């Protein structure tokens, strides 16, 4: 996928912008708090239909305006052009149209333009709570497999209903009603999620190990392990999940919510056979997170036969020049990328489109 | 809006209580009633009342009935060994319209939804079990909607009826007839693929 152009009206602090992009590198310079990341947020909005910074989408509307409008033109690797338009009124609904046709559900936008984003907070992939790592794997799998996304959505709904049944049982001191049927729903969706995640992990792992050779010579392999809240050894996933639910039933009745399932799982990441979360310097954790994101992009590219857009928010400030150079050459071979940086000296030695952002005004920089 | 015509205004407000009817449609309907002959309006009004007074639920299947038993349950040419379970009385009409099904029905009057406080006891399920036990039923088709709650309810019924050794089936989730693949949403396609059949 290549983004040709982006038009913005009233997006965050950007009053108006009409931008044409390079198919390889796009460098967005500017001092802190000028609106660089707003451009990445706008592009990412077209990938998921929501902001990566906030759940409250109204925050994306310029503070003194009533609406925002964004239009993006892109071309898939197979040569199909898309024109996606997003409109959002303050206090109103978001409306999305693709090639002039309005989407019935916002979630239909997912998958049209696969995107991989790296923001400084993503170091939490290595250090943060398990939910960060689950989200990472789920995001990758959702970009590749619509049925995984479907199962994920259904699982969330089933969980809410099952928890409601358990809570009512706890409060009334009776047996949870219809619980065996809710169990079976958890088993169906849950097993598909666990197996989908495991498959995705091995896809990411094999690519991360090859990337790490290119970027940090002499460092060992990255390995990943799915730590399931359910003992999977020697059993079919469905059977294991079914037994685990049965085994925690009494405890669940006392606590009033579901205690096992893929929403409790974690992923352990090892660098050189040592768990990254416990051992490893800040620099190594950061680099490992970047490599995992690049592996994610690579997996999406090969499985979807579509190059994802890569968005990098200020990643070079903590990388040494040699590592930054290697990451750059890796990117330029494969993806269209958008990189923000507060640095003034040139960190990219290949051809790139350059933009300068100051107080919400985006200017094209001359070579 | 106040027209200085309280009776007219009252009728508009009544129409607005119906699903899918807003102010404008309600006004149109009201003027249509004004244009009708007096006899016609009387018939209309009496029918409204009659529907409410005469129609209740079938003692056997929970579908709509004038009297104790509904038309389907009273029809002896129906296949007595097969029951189709649906969520609402209106679903019976949809299935009857297809003309495909010649068995009998059972209406649950809802689906399991703990969030809304609906458990098995709030549904017409005990009666279903009684029928399976007493009427020599061989197959139960659970045609609840393909939602999380509908699916769960179908699983619950399958588990409940398991001990009677009868066939419990669920209609296949598939692609809509006459549609084109490119217009079918992804969720439907992935479910249809999961439920694929050899040809």
Quick structural gist:
In chain A, 41% of the residues lie in helices and 23% in strands. With 367 residues, chain A is of the alpha/beta class. The radius of gyration of chain A is 22 Å and the shape is globular.
Architecture blueprint of SSEs:
The complex is a heterodimer of chains A (367) and B (199).
Chain A: E1 2-11, E2 14-20, E3 25-29, H1 36-48, E4 67-75, E5 81-89, E6 94-98, E7 101-102, E8 115-118, H2 124-127, H3 130-144, H4 146-172, H5 179-215, E9 222-227, H6 237-255, E10 266-271, E11 274-275, H7 282-304, E12 309-313, H8 321-334, E13 337-341, E14 352-358, E15 361-364
Parallel strand pairs in A: 3-13, 3-14, 8-12, 12-13
Antiparallel strand pairs in A: 1-2, 1-4, 4-5, 5-6, 6-7, 9-10, 10-11, 14-15
Helix pairs in contact in A: 3-4, 3-5, 3-7, 4-5, 4-6, 5-6, 5-7
Chain B: H1 6-16, H2 23-35, H3 38-54, E1 55-57, E2 64-66, H4 71-74, E3 82-86, H5 89-98, E4 104-107, H6 126-134, E5 139-142, H7 148-161, E6 167-169, H8 186-194
Parallel strand pairs in B: 3-4, 3-5, 5-6
Antiparallel strand pairs in B: 1-2
Can you describe this structure?
- The complex is a heterodimer of chains A (367) and B (199).
- Chain A has helices spanning 36-48, 124-127, 130-144, 146-172, 179-215, 237-255, 282-304, 321-334, and strands at 2-11, 14-20, 25-29, 67-75, 81-89, 94-98, 101-102, 115-118, 222-227, 266-271, 274-275, 309-313, 337-341, 352-358, 361-364.
- In chain A, β6 and β7 (101-102) form a beta hairpin.
- Chain A has a domain at 1-114 and 306-367: 3-Layer(aba) Sandwich (Rossmann fold), CATH 3.40.50.300.
- Chain A has 367 residues and is of the alpha/beta class.
- In chain A, the strands form 3 sheets. Chain A has a 6-stranded antiparallel β-sheet with strand order 2-1-4-5-6-7, with helices on one face. In chain A, strands 8-12-13-3-14-15 form a 6-stranded mixed β-sheet, sandwiched between helices. Chain A has a 3-stranded antiparallel β-sheet with strand order 9-10-11.
- In chain A, α5 crosses α6 (237-255).
- The longest helix of chain A has 37 residues, at 179-215.
- Chain B is α/β, with parallel strands linked by helices and 199 residues long.
- Chain B has 2 domains: 6-54, Orthogonal Bundle (Helicase, Ruva Protein, domain 3), CATH 1.10.8.420; 76-198, Dna Topoisomerase Vi A Subunit, Chain: A, domain 2.
- Chain B contains 8 helices and 6 strands; from the N terminus they run αααββαβαβαβαβα.
- Chain B has helices at residues 6-16, 23-35, 38-54, 71-74, 89-98, 126-134, 148-161, 186-194, and strands spanning 55-57, 64-66, 82-86, 104-107, 139-142, 167-169.
- Chain B has a 4-stranded parallel β-sheet. Chain B has a two-stranded antiparallel sheet with strand order 1-2.
- The radius of gyration of chain B is 22 Å and the shape is globular.
- Chain B starts with 5 loop residues before the first helix and ends in a 5-residue tail after the last helix.
- At the A-B interface, α4 and α5 of A face α7 and α8 of B.
């Amino acid at each position: 996928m290549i983004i040709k152009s982006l038009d913005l009206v009233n997006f965050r602090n950007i009053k108006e912008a009409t931008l044409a992009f390079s198919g390889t590198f796009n460098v967005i310079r500017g001092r802190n708090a000028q609106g660089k990341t707003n451009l990445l947020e706008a592009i990412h909005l077209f990938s998921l239909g929501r902001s990566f910074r906030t759940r409250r989408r109204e925050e994306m509307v310029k503070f003194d305006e009533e609406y925002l409008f964004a239009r993006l033109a892109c071309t898939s690797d197979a040569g199909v052009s898309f024109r996606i338009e997003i409109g959002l009124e303050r206090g109103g609904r978001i409306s999305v149209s693709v090639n002039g046709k309005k989407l019935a559900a916002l979630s239909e936008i997912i998958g049209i333009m696969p995107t991989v984003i790296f923001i400084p907070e993503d170091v939490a992939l290595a250090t943060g709570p398990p939910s960060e790592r689950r989200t990472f794997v789920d995001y990758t799998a959702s970009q590749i497999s619509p049925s995984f996304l479907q199962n994920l959505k259904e699982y969330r709904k089933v969980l809410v209903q099952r928890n409601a049944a358990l809570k009512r049982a706890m409060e009334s001191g009776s047996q949870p009603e219809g619980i065996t049927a809710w169990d079976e729903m958890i088993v169906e969706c849950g097993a598909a999620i666990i197996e989908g995640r495991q498959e995705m992990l091995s896809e990411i792992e094999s690519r991360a190990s090859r990337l790490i050779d290119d970027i940090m010579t002499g460092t060992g392999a990255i390995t990943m392990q799915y730590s399931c809240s359910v003992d999977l050894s020697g059993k079919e996933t469905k059977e294991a999940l079914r037994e685990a639910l049965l085994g925690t039933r009494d405890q669940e009745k006392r606590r009033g919510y579901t205690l096992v399932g893929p929403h409790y799982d974690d992923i352990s990441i090892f660098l050189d056979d040592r768990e990254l979360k416990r051992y490893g310097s800040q620099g190594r954790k950061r680099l490992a997170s970047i490599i995992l994101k690049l592996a994610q992009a690579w997996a999406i590219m090969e499985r979807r036969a579509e190059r994802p857009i890569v968005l990098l928010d200020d990643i070079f400030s903590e990388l040494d020049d040699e590592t930054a150079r290697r990451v750059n050459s890796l990117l330029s071979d494969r993806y269209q990328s958008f990189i923000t940086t507060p640095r003034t000296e040139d960190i990219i030695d290949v051809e790139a489109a350059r933009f300068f952002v100051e107080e919400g005004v985006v200017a094209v920089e001359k070579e | 809006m106040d027209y200085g015509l309280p009776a007219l205004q009252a009728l508009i407000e009544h129409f607005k209580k119906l699903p899918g009817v807003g102010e404008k449609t309600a006004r149109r309907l009201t003027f249509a009633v004004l244009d009708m002959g007096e006899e016609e309006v009387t018939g209309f009004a009496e029918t409204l009342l009659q529907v409410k007074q005469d129609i209740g639920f079938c003692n056997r299947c929970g579908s709509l009935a004038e009297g104790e038993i509904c038309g389907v349950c009273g029809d002896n040419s129906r296949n007595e060994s097969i029951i189709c379970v649906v969520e609402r009385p209106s679903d019976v009409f949809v299935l009857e319209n297809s003309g495909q099904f010649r068995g009998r029905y059972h209406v649950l009057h809802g689906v399991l939804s703990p969030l809304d406080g609906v458990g098995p006891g709030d549904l017409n399920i005990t009666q279903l079990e009684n029928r399976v036990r007493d009427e020599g039923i061989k197959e139960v088709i659970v045609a609840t909607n393909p939602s999380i709650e509908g699916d769960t309810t179908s699983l619950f019924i399958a588990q409940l009826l398991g001990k009677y050794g009868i066939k419990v089936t669920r209609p296949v989730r598939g692609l809509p007839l006459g549609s084109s693949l490119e217009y079918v949403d992804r969720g439907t396609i992935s479910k249809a693929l999961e439920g694929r059949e050899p040809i």
